[in-house]
Amino acid sequence: MNPKMNNLQLEINQLLSESIPNSALNTNLEESMLYSLNAGGKRIRPVVLLLTLEMLSGDYEKGISSAIGLEMIHTYSLIHDDLPPMDNDDYRRGKPTNHKVYGEWKAILSGDALLTKAFELISNDQALTDLTKIKLIQRLSNASGHLGMVGGQTLDMQSEGTPVDLETLEQIHNAKTGALLKFAVMAAVDIANPSSDVANNLELYSEHLGLMFQIKDDLLDIYGDETKLGKKVGSDLANDKSTYVSLLGKEGAEEKLAYHTQAAYDCLANLPDNYDTTQLDAIIKLFNDRES
């Protein structure tokens, strides 16, 4: 990450650490929520949201609640993905997974609480108009639910042990991985309200980012460095999942990654000259080059 991204990451980490106040219910649910929120990660989705908004409006502050809520939903999905009925992972980012520390039932409830907290944050944001809040809540609900991330995860789980074609694989990942990345970009569009041409190019950009992210994930799951990933490689192979690598081979997956990388750059090149795309270009490079 470049210095701008690093600074945003630090700001997001601080805000996340302050986002779950203790309740009067005398449970350690908040501790469990914060355990996973504070477990690290690049904060890619909130960073993308804030950088896109800064490019569009010159100020990212109005995107803070959406960015923090988005990371809460991503974190809840990881907690649930790690559970025994799904990926059954013992480690996430080099630390024991939530259910290994707090037990399965509390991990489930922590995820549930993070999901609902995200919408509370957006609805309470006094810097946004009511209409903008409605747009954001609608978009985030769609991206998170049965038509987005949850639907994609369902299709992914149903496809384990069954070969799928490339079209189905892209359908899975456009929903499972791409939907929240698309929200990151389009939430900034909802807040800044640029022209329809700008919005359309950014939407296409976000779709290519989502596929880039997943193709790279598939490559790293086979060829990545476990010490950098913070988890074991080969989980997709062990779970008999179809991936870009299993369908296309290493070279074919890398060619697909290169195609979506160039297409994402082309979308930004189509924006008017008054938009400084430097940071969004850097996001493409980060996705293409990442090792974890």
TrEMBL record:
Cofactor dependence is on: Mg(2+)
CDD domains assigned: Trans_IPPS_HT
Which Gene3D superfamilies does the annotation name?
A: Farnesyl Diphosphate Synthase
Keyword list (alphabetical) reads: Isoprene biosynthesis, Magnesium, Metal-binding, Transferase
Give the InterPro entries listed for this entry: Isoprenoid_synthase_dom_sf (IPR008949), Polyprenyl_synt (IPR000092), Polyprenyl_synt_CS (IPR033749), Prenyl_diphosphate_synthase (IPR053378)
Has keyword Amino-acid biosynthesis? Answer: no
**Known Pfam families for this protein?**
polyprenyl_synt
What highest taxon heads this organism's lineage?
Bacteria
Family (UniProt): Belongs to the FPP/GGPP synthase family.
What protein am I looking at? Geranyltranstransferase
